[in-house]
Design goal:
alpha+beta; elongated
Length: 70
């Protein structure tokens, strides 16, 4: 019989805004998250460069609009 190396699960380093974020899949195959999906989308809109939107002239206005909605 072989032994498996059981190491404690290490948590990855995350942005302070997403601290405590965890995703799991329940028995029905649905994703369960500890943070609301709208908050995750807002974080991604503000912090991730979207290739499809790079050439838009109103990109800065779009980003400002998502921050004002808070």
């Amino acid at each position: 019989m072989s032994k498996k190396n059981e190491e404690p699960e290490k948590k990855p380093k995350v942005n302070k805004e997403l601290e405590g974020f965890d995703v799991s899949i329940d028995s029905f195959g649905e994703l369960k998250s500890t943070i609301d999906i709208d908050k995750i989308n807002q974080f991604l809109n503000n912090n991730v460069d979207d290739k499809k939107l790079r050439d838009r002239e109103d990109l800065d206005d779009l980003k400002k609009g998502t921050q004002e909605e808070e």
